[in-house]
Amino acid sequence: xxxxxxxxxxxxxxxxxxxxxxxxxxxxxxxxxxxxxxxxxxxxxxxxxxxxxxxxxxxxxxxxxxxxxxxxxxxxxxxxxxxxxxxxxxxxxxxxxxxxxxxxxxxxxxxxxxxxxxxxxxxxxxxxxxxxxxxxxxxxxxxxxxxxxxxxxxxxxxxxxxxxxxxxxxxxxxxxxxxxxxxxxxxxxxxxxxxxxxxxxxxxxxxxxxxxxxxxxxxxxxxxxxxxxxxxxxxxxxxxxxxxxxxxxxxxxx
Amino acid sequence: xxxxxxxxxxxxxxxxxxxxxxxxxxxxxxxxxxxxxxxxxxxxxxxxxxxxxxxxxxxxxxxxxxxxxxxxxxxxxxxxxxxxxxxxxxxxxxxxxxxxxxxxxxxxxxxxxxxxxxxxxxxxxxxxxxxxxxxxxxxxxxxxxxxxxxxxxxxxxxxxxxxxxxxxxxxxxxxxxxxxxxxxxxxxxxxxxxxxxxxxxxxxxxxxxxxxxxxxxxxxxxxxxxxxxxxxxxxxxxxxxxxxxxxxxxxxxxxxxxxxxxxxxxxxxxxxxxxxxxxxxxxxxxxxxxxxxxxxxxxxxxxxxxxxxxxxxxxxxxxxxxxxxxxxxxxxxxxxxxxxxxxxxxxxxxxxxxxxxxxxxxxxxxxxxxxxxxxxxxxxxxxxxxxxxxxxxxxxxxxxxxxxxxxxxxxxxxxxxxxxxxxxxxxxxxxxxxxxxxxxxxxxxxxxxxxxxxxxxxxxxxxxxxxxxxxxxxxxxxxxxxxxxxxxxxxxxxxxxxxxxxxxxxxxxxxxxxxxxxxxxxxxxxxxxxxxxxxxxxxxxxxxxxxxxxxxxxxxxxxxxxxxxxxxxxxxxxxxxxxxxxxxxxxxxxxxxxxxxxxxxxxxx
Lengths: 254, 605
Description:
The complex is a heterodimer.
Chain A: E1 2-11, E2 14-24, E3 29-33, H1 40-47, E4 55-60, E5 63-64, H2 69-74, E6 76-79, H3 91-101, H4 106-119, H5 135-147, E7 153-157, H6 165-180, E8 184-188, H7 192-198, E9 201-206, E10 209-215, H8 216-223, H9 228-236, H10 241-253
Parallel strand pairs in A: 3-8, 3-9, 6-7, 7-8
Antiparallel strand pairs in A: 1-2, 1-4, 4-5, 9-10
Helix pairs in contact in A: 3-4, 3-5, 8-9
Chain B: H1 8-15, H2 23-36, H3 41-52, H4 64-95, H5 101-128, H6 137-143, H7 150-184, H8 195-224, H9 230-253, H10 273-284, H11 290-326, H12 337-350, H13 354-369, H14 371-399, H15 402-405, H16 409-434, H17 444-447, H18 454-485, H19 487-509, H20 528-553, H21 557-581, H22 595-600
């Protein structure tokens, strides 16, 4: 089980993530939600070791991950929000790079690479540079790289970004199937409809603080809202969209 | 394109500024205000293209070109402190002679030097801007949705390019054309003021010829080559040009010492462009010699021809270039598969473990495919070639071609210096490049896989430097050493040079705790004077000093073996020092602040 306790990240005393706690059990998918700047990506970066927390603890199966950060990362698969990849590498070479960095032997790596590339319909493009890939193709490469080492914990930051409808349907089913296999999944997204269908529970952040953390159905009941979208709008105090639209139209005419 | 910028009055009132009161301030403010205004689409495009010339990935941040330019000016100033007194005393002595001939020949040699240097400087500058000579894919994509005609884009690009060439030309030529005649003036040189316009016009036109020729050459390539070939071939040509210009530096610097040759009238003078402009200078200065007139005419004809070709290339390009660029998709690298597969299999034999292999492959692929990195590496190699070339130029200038045919101590030293110069500048270039990110935001893939494996990952870097640089370089230069120095002596000299390059590898790796191309540190932040001085000292000590020692030891096998033993011990000691020094910790990446935080203008704790 992954436990995050009182996680805080401050930039010059301004908290970006403020005392956030949650846990993910094997087989559970936690939807990690919040408007832009709420602290979702910062949490994800802390979990992947890209930035260090100001305070707080991360435990995996009851042990502080700081004591064996390498061992923790060996069990993590990560799909970042932005498809930042080395453009000069080909799709196949990128997977090879990730596999080697994870210490996979040639035999295992080549078998898995081929399967991933074929299943994500990238086999024909495996020798093309990533710079020529579409956004969806890059997302597929990132997903393949995250799954390459059969991780126990998957951190997915906007995994559906740029995917076509068919691949999105496959991925949705895949996320459920991975959870059914006992994987822990942290799912950060703005697409609330998908979160509602895929996640077992959600955590909503606002200005770095947790404003809700519960099962989707229970949140709907508590907030008396028909959908997660309503819950989200109410908790994050979204500005009235009509008001914003009127403002934009007025600015265009000015 | 109208109303993109606020008017001066609006901007001023928004900032709460008062009207300027004094003439100078008023003039400056009016000009600044005029620049702030929105002008015609063509002007705005021209301004855009002109400013983009100064945005280079070779410097760390926008605007850092000013720091580099300041550094370059500091170097020029330092050189002028040395050269001006030297020239003053040289012409003082020449002016005091009874015979005016030495003075006249020295003037011609120095004018030829200025013309050649001007051509070289502009050639180097335009070669560095090679990718910006015509609108490119990025321009087409960015400007696609704007209400602009393709003709305007091309006209603006050409105008910006011309403006840049004019600025560089005037900035370089004007001071020289004023200072040099001042130093030349005196008894014999009473009529020397005419040299001010003569040097200025001839040098400026020589630079313009280089500029126009390079633009016309690229224009012809753009239109004649299949569009998929152009990027690859263009980089090769840019590298070749860079090497040619850098290698000609020693030759150009030796022109003032060729004053005795100025009295010759060789038939091949009509094939040497700098001599055309020397002829033009002479004609402007009043020389009516037939050869001078012929050379002057050639200079003007060549400029006219280059101008016609350049305009033709631009006119030809704007109708078809965009379609060619936009409608030609990038091809997968299938043709490289077999060679890549063999190289990969070899790498797997040489490098043990998947993690070192990952870094090894990443470095090799990045260097092979990143245009900017290859260009910088080419530049360092070209500097090495220039240093090597300098040794041979001095031999040829001293004794003609005989200097290359007859074995001498100077020739031996020049041969021995080849692998030493190559290793020094190649490793210096690689260390510079390794700190230069390929795609900074993609380094997360290394950062999340690095904890606990830092030493393993650095093993890939070490393997790359030994297997892809030090050993191949020794293998490539071995036949040259053996051909010129003899089989036995050449092999020993190669062995010693290889061991010396191993020491340089260790120095390169010392305290280098980064995976190449992944850190956010951009090189080029040290003052240019400091960098140049370091390279000069290193070249003098390592290339000059070591090649002298090897040459002296060469006649005795025992001395050579002792030298090899000494270098082997130095390498082993340097290697132990590096491995013992390195704390096994986190490698350096230097994170960037999050975009949201950057907006607030704050950084991490």
